[in-house]
Specification:
Layout: E1 8-12, H1 16-28, E2 32-36, H2 39-50
Parallel strand pairs: 1-2
């Protein structure tokens, strides 16, 4: 990835099919993907990954 640090995107969506398609596209573009099904879960994932 051209010497750049790996970048992570948090996808927040309750439709699993949308998450799967979006995650695959982002992975193909070189991103690491984490997902959450709703806002409160996303906040928890964000704080857990930041620690």
């Amino acid at each position: 990835m051209d010497g750049l640090a790996r970048r992570t995107i948090l996808v927040v969506e309750d439709e699993s099919a949308i998450v799967e398609v979006l995650a695959q596209y982002l992975k193909d573009e070189g991103f690491s993907v984490t997902s959450a099904g709703d806002g409160p879960s996303a906040v928890a994932v964000f704080h857990a990954d930041a620690a």
